[in-house]
């Protein structure tokens, strides 16, 4: 009967739910509440798993794993504001700037925290994004990822300055930013500041139009220091 009314999570644990000690007094209301809580919890877990899969994160990292001691340029207050997620509610964007290895991508992967709070998130490298934009009309997988991007509450674009764009690619990127503007928050990681993005986009008018939309409501966080990966590198060679 539980399966008939789509209570599949509760149905899978019905024996556990019924296994109440004889000496434990429980009312009908309390028993019904246990069944409902079991079903709700199961559905929430499945929704999280589905949102996490659709987010396409390269790895699973939480903000709790980020070591603030390794990145003194990020204050504890800024970090806590990042975790509060009120900036998503207010439609703000984030730009994380800094050299390779200082924690930009790990901070952005902290978008898993947003998934935990019910938001739809999608992670994509700039290289992959350009490919998706160019092929979404002809390749089904690109079309599916593009759909997830425009339906998300938060888009994370990693390594903005990784490669230079052709004018057609820059125009497609502008069209995406224009579609997301006012609807979706964006996190961008880059090793160069917005004033240098013209080198990537190659067109002054397109660059201005993109920056106008991204920076309208935006927080810029500058990260510096030595590469975490180099500092904590592992080795298989043993010194004598």
Tally of contiguous helical segments: 13
Strand order of the largest sheet: 2-3-4-1-5
Helix and strand content put the structural class at: alpha/beta
Distance between the termini: 70 Å
Provide the low-confidence segments as ranges: 227-233
Which helices and strands occur, and which strands form pairs?
Layout: H1 8-12, H2 14-18, H3 28-55, H4 76-84, H5 86-89, E1 93-97, H6 104-109, H7 112-116, E2 121-125, H8 126-135, H9 140-151, E3 154-158, H10 167-180, E4 185-190, H11 198-201, H12 204-214, E5 218-222, H13 228-231
Parallel strand pairs: 1-4, 1-5, 2-3, 3-4
Short account of what is shown:
This protein has 240 residues and is α/β, with parallel strands linked by helices.
Description of the molecule:
This protein has 240 residues and is of the alpha/beta class. It has two domains: 8-54; 63-230, P-loop containing nucleotide triphosphate hydrolases (Rossmann fold, 3-Layer(aba) Sandwich). It is 49% helix and 11% strand. It contains 13 helices and five strands. It has helices at 8-12, 14-18, 28-55, 76-84, 86-89, 104-109, 112-116, 126-135, 140-151, 167-180, 198-201, 204-214, 228-231, and strands at 93-97, 121-125, 154-158, 185-190, 218-222. It has a five-stranded parallel β-sheet. Helix 10 links the parallel strand 3 and strand 4. Helix 8 crosses helix 9 (140-151), helix 8 crosses helix 10 (167-180) and helix 10 (167-180) runs parallel beside helix 12. It is elongated and about 70 Å long. It starts with 7 loop residues before the first helix and ends in a 9-residue tail after the last helix. The model is unreliable at 227-233 (pLDDT under 50).
């Amino acid at each position: 009967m539980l399966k008939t009314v789509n209570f599949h999570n509760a149905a899978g644990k019905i024996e556990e739910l019924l296994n109440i000690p004889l000496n434990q007094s429980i009312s009908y209301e309390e028993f019904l509440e246990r069944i409902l809580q079991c079903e709700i919890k199961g559905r929430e877990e499945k929704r999280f798993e589905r949102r996490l899969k659709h987010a396409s994160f390269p790895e699973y990292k939480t903000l709790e794993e980020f070591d603030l001691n390794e990145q003194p340029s990020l204050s504890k207050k800024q970090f806590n504001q990042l975790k509060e997620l009120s900036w998503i509610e207010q439609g703000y964007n984030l730009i994380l700037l800094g050299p390779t290895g200082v924690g930009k991508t790990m901070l952005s992967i902290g978008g898993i925290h947003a998934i935990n709070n019910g938001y739809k998130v999608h992670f994509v490298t700039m290289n992959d994004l350009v490919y998706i934009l160019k092929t979404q009309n002809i390749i089904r997988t690109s079309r599916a990822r593009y759909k997830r991007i425009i339906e998300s509450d938060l888009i994370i674009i990693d390594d903005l300055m990784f490669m230079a764009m052709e004018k057609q690619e820059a125009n497609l990127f502008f069209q995406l930013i224009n579609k997301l503007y006012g609807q979706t928050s964006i996190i961008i990681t880059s090793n160069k500041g917005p004033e240098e993005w013209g080198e990537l986009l190659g067109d002054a008018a397109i660059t201005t139009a993109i920056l106008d939309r991204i920076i309208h409501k935006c927080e810029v966080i500058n990260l510096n220091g030595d590469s975490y990966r180099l500092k904590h590198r592992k080795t298989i060679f043993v010194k004598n």
